[in-house]
Records
---
Amino acid sequence: MNRRSFINNLSVCGASLTLSPTLFSFTKAPEKKIRFALIGKGGMGSADCNTALRVPQAELIAVCDIYKPRLAAAKKEWGEHLKLESNYKNILADPTIDAVIIATPDHWHQRIAVDALNSGKHVYCEKPIIHKRSEAKALIKAQKQSGKIFQMGTQGVSSVGIQLAKVLLESGIIGPLNFVDARFSSAPGMLNSFQAPAEATPTNLWWDQFIGEAPKQAFTPQRFFAWRNWSDYGTGLAGDLFVHVLASIHYITGCKQPKKVYSDGDILYYNDGSRDTPDLIYSLFDYTMPDEKSHFKVSLGANVLDGVSKQWGSTDFSMIGLKGTMRVTWDTVTIKTHGTVNTEGLEERLAQLPGFGAMRKISDYEVQFSANPEYPDAHFLHFQNFFHAIRDKSESVAPVEFGVYASSAALMSFESQMKKQII
Ligand SMILES: NC(=O)c1ccc[n+]([C@@H]2O[C@H](COP(=O)([O-])OP(=O)(O)OC[C@H]3O[C@@H](n4cnc5c(N)ncnc54)[C@H](O)[C@@H]3O)[C@@H](O)[C@H]2O)c1
């Protein structure tokens, strides 16, 4: 049985009462569908949309993109009935649309999100939800005034692994946290230089709408497709990658923001004018736990010039405490301690956690906690949580203030590298 049929079977059986709040949503009678639109049909927008469509109560109505080939592809992928728009304001003006997914480059996130909230739409916004820290206040205000649901696209926080890590850290099993460590390398082959597709012409692309409020530039496909390389549109490797780990750390520890951040990095290889953000960055973050009783440091590194190590920190990082360590992935938490691992009472506690599968003793000093392999993936759970929150008027798992704090921590790291100073 695969994950989906497991869920479907549950809903058929009506096995709701002993289930988690997450699975409970499947067991309710079908209701009016939540009608959503996608703004930004690139790589992640497409993945988001496909995942959102796996949630039974969600219906895709419209797609917006400024690049014609992607708009045309939307109908092929999701149906001829779709309304297609190149101006997101037309999507927001449609009263039949309840929610939007924003998956444009980073420099558009806050502007579109504020407009969407002011138009009465619920918002699922890709990370980082702000491009500059100065954008935070207006976004929080728009969400508060609208009362609409907001979810940041850091799907890891919905994973069973991160949920397990939160309970395990709180249980004291590794003692007070002192260090978190995560590394990112490039996917092999990523060093190849950029090649524009033949259809990337000014007639196929609304260039001014890509630029938005960023400094004016003559049309260049490289900036459009490799926008992550440029600080006018992206937020460097910190906003692209670190934000996922930071969101998970904030979720697990309850911390909101680092006291200070120091980064170093450089353009070590791509100094051919193809980027103004580093291809290698290392950052140290200084955090105090919410009870102010202990402090911990976070070390994050990303090196896109390393095509060999295959490290992906957002889905695999270490948390080190005085009594032991936790290696956290989205499906497992592996604990190693100095003495015998004390698991007393833990299994019962974890049994209450949606998606918990099993506890496996590897040795007296090592225990692994894992997700039920039949339980849905983090991306699906994150979207389910979003639609669930809309339907039940409950808080989402990554609401706007949480998103602003995690995004700001990533932006502090980026800023520190660019300015070569402690932030
Ligand atoms: N959550 C995750 O795991 C994850 C993974 C990858 C990317 N992302 C985020 O998703 C976002 C998109 O990244 P991507 O890799 O899909 O980029 P992409 O370049 O593949 O897609 C961006 C799309 O937005 C469109 N676009 C640009 N400006 C627009 C505008 N003003 N109005 C409408 N459409 C516009 C582009 O034409 C393009 O199709 C980024 O913010 C990125 O950080 C998140």
---
Amino acid sequence: MENTRASLMFKTLAVAAIGLSATFVMLVRDPSDTLFGGGYPELWRRTGLAGAPTRAAACIFAGVFLLAMGWLYRLLFAPLELLRGVDEVGYIAEDGRSRAQAANEVRRRRKTGELPPVYPNGWYRVLDSHMLERGDVKSVTVLGQQVAVFRGQDGKAYVVDAYCPHLGANLAVGGRVVGGCIECPFHGWQFRGVDGRCVKIPYADKVPEFAKVRCWPSCEINGLVLVWFHCDGLEPSWRVPEQSQITRGEWVYRGRTEHFINAHIEEIPENAADIAHLAHLHTPGIVSGVDLRYTNSKTWEFIRHDWKVEWKPEPEPNKHCSQMLVKHALTVFGRHWPLLDLDVLARQVGPGVVFLLFEHSFLGRGVIMHCVTPVEPLLQCVSHTIFYQSSIPPLVPKFILRAECIQFERDVMIWNNKTYISKPMLVKEDSAIQKHRRWFSQFYSENSPRLRYQHDTLDF
Ligand code: FES
Ligand SMILES: [Fe+2]
């Protein structure tokens, strides 16, 4: 609603600007006008060039004005979309190597260590709801598998295996939504989203019972399309809770970021229990950037973030959840700015979803949905989607998301280049890490897939 109003205002301003510029250009006919107060040279008059410089200047001015308006509109109203490529963050590309070369080298050379299983049981995000319109089909890789995500004409989102069981065409590449079904682009078989059953074979009299595509248990909540994975095919044993402010439309979408991380999935949530790293990695002000070679530079020393953190698992019946309570304070030139104190509750629900709930006296309330989805055994897609009180100017949540993204990218540089240590050398103050590992182990079961070879990954 608010976005529609803003966009209407912008369109009105743009039309007014174009109208004014056009009028101005048309009015510039007289050679004795603006630029040449004393009249044009005779030659210009004869060749018909009189008035042209002013008209050109007016056109350039109108163009620049429109560009500036567009930029201002995006800054003030449009959601922040920060989508990082697989090799874009956290690698050091030196000696003339490209970022992709640096990333591939790190992946090839890395010692993976003794890893836990690579795909824990749980709910994982496949897409944000707004990315899937009615009738859309998207191809997504989750947990090493290709899936087709589509939204039926009934408005429901469905997730099925991408490869058609008939002859293997990819349903997400050229497939078409027909009612609540997806139609294969190769021979036109139609599969129902609800249960994967084939309901139509255009050239056959009868559809055999066994004609079926695998259908993933899925749900749509808090603006996310999620799938359930269990290595033994068991049904979901818990649900991702609803954030009612999102459903009621009180908190609205203000942007998202996406990163690909070259690490085992468990490294990412373990960060919440690694309390000591906050005081080291995340203390330098966000102005000092994300490249860990420079974040401790003297130039930005005057601005520091202070963190007080506590991590604990939740008791039954929510033992699949854990909580990190964060108290953030900002100091500038050693002076604490209480107005910028921020409390965050990070509630992890299963291995793949975290609710980062913000509460601030005047900056308002909102949530960042932090989702980790394994793409391959050692490649995680991490998305942060922010929903914020609709009454707060979008610039505020966009700034929060951007700031969070800077801190997160520092972790990315660590994760992308580290190895997993199954028996780490810990001190007493690191005890939450072991607790976290015990808590996280509930998402593995005997048949959870393991990494077979160190190079069980693809090059970027
Ligand atoms: S491969 Fe899909 S219908 Fe033939
Ligand atoms: Fe961190």
